[in-house]
Design brief:
The protein is an alpha+beta fold and 367 residues long. The chain folds into 2 domains: 111 residues, Methane Monooxygenase Hydroxylase, Chain G, domain 1 (Up-down Bundle); 242 residues, Alpha-Beta Plaits (2-Layer Sandwich), CATH 3.30.70.1660. Helices cover 48% and strands 20% of the residues. The chain contains 10 helices and 11 strands. Strands 2-3-1-5-4-9-10-11 form an 8-stranded mixed sheet. It has a 3-stranded antiparallel sheet with strand order 6-7-8, with helices on one face. The radius of gyration is 24 Å and the shape is globular. The two termini are 43 Å apart.
């Protein structure tokens, strides 16, 4: 008869740790306040605030329900083990053992929550992919990367919205901008920031030679009040209106209302072409500019603090973070965490989550 005492004790320890990083006491106290706010008849008079309250309520309720369910399951496992041991019931012991296996797997996944340390890690993500060196192959690769993240988002139940789509000359895209909406979208997608490298037999080479292509992935948190955190002088902006381009209308509206904004002092360029009017596109492009300026200032402060502490701090912009090799062998390798996969087809099919999780753990161990 198996002795599950140590395994059950380990689950109790993990539950106590989860109580801490999920801030259970704090959010239990917060829940009645949110319920009161949700019940106010004038809640939706301020739509932005209402959405924020609704999002927080859902997150708080989900975390409390999850914690309570795990606590109950541990109690069930303990009860089954004690009952099986007292009555010599092997079936109860086996049932308790299976519960322990299932709970251990859940805690392993839940522990990722302790790795989200940033202010905006829980929120949505604003993303851009740009083709790099490699000509047509790089443009095709940029679209492949977008499709990978789209499949990943779909599998997680996240919402994805394309804001910009610039088609390549022969295939793929030169640039694509999009937002991914879902809990911890930004916390996870930070892992993808940098240059991605593809090695394969080029479908655009008549001699079927092996080519290397590069594409860059950028990501920022979708900060709702970014416009209130930064002052933008209209004299510092160049606003261009252009015709949208979309793959047969699949991704964006094909109209003359697309807007590109260049912030002259920093060189930051944002654009939007998925809204119905030029005014809406400009508003969204301005919002994305505000987000990038807020993040730029935050990064400057971090770099200054690191310099004062005598640290060498890399922001990873422009660095090669991962290689996807399709020929002469099959492998995806992350250059930071060291994680490898022999199934690039699966990774490109959206199973990129393990690489994000490995990066989060690598970041913590490297801190």
């Amino acid at each position: 008869m198996a002795d599950l005492t140590d395994s059950l004790a380990t689950l109790r320890t993990e539950l106590a740790e989860a109580e801490d990083y999920l801030r259970i006491d704090e959010i239990r106290a917060r829940l009645p306040q949110l319920e009161t706010e949700m019940g106010r008849p004038d809640l939706w008079d301020d739509a932005e605030r209402a959405r924020a309250i609704q999002t927080e309520f859902t997150s708080v309720k989900d975390d409390i329900d999850l914690y309570d369910r795990l606590a109950t399951s541990i109690e069930d496992a303990e009860l089954l083990f004690e009952m099986g041991r007292e009555e010599g019931d092997d079936d109860s012991i086996a049932e308790s053992e299976q519960l322990i296996v299932d709970l251990t797997a859940e805690f392993e996944q839940l522990e990722l929550r302790a790795l989200y340390t940033g202010e905006y890690d829980e929120g949505d993500a604003v993303c851009e992919i740009h083709s790099g060196a490699g000509g047509t192959d790089s443009q095709d690769w940029a679209q492949m990367l977008y499709e990978m993240y789209k499949r990943w988002a779909d599998k997680r139940g996240f919402k994805i919205e394309v804001t910009e789509w610039q088609e390549g000359q022969e295939a793929g895209v030169t640039a694509v901008g999009f937002t991914i909406q879902g809990r911890h979208a930004y916390g996870l997608l930070q892992a993808e920031r940098g240059v991605h490298r593809l090695v394969r037999i080029s479908p655009f080479d008549s001699q079927a030679r092996r080519h290397t292509a590069f594409a860059s992935f950028s990501v920022w948190p979708d900060i709702p009040d970014a416009a209130n955190q930064v002052d933008i002088d209209e004299k510092d902006l160049r606003v261009d209106v252009f015709r949208s381009s979309g793959a047969g209308g699949q991704h964006v509206n094909t109209t003359d209302s697309a807007v590109r904004i260049t912030h002259l002092p920093t060189g930051i360029v944002t654009s939007c072409q998925n809204e119905r009017s030029q005014h809406q596109n400009k508003d969204r492009a301005m919002q994305m500019l505000s987000i990038q300026l807020v993040e730029l200032e935050r990064q400057k402060r971090e770099d200054e603090l690191a310099a004062e502490a005598g640290e060498s701090k890399s922001t990873e912009w422009g660095s090669q973070i991962r290689s996807y090799v399709l020929q002469p062998y099959q492998q995806v390798k992350d250059e930071r965490s060291g994680l490898t996969s022999g199934n690039p087809e699966g990774v490109l099919g959206g199973d990129v989550g393990p690489f994000m999780e490995a990066w989060l753990r690598w970041r913590r161990s490297s801190a």
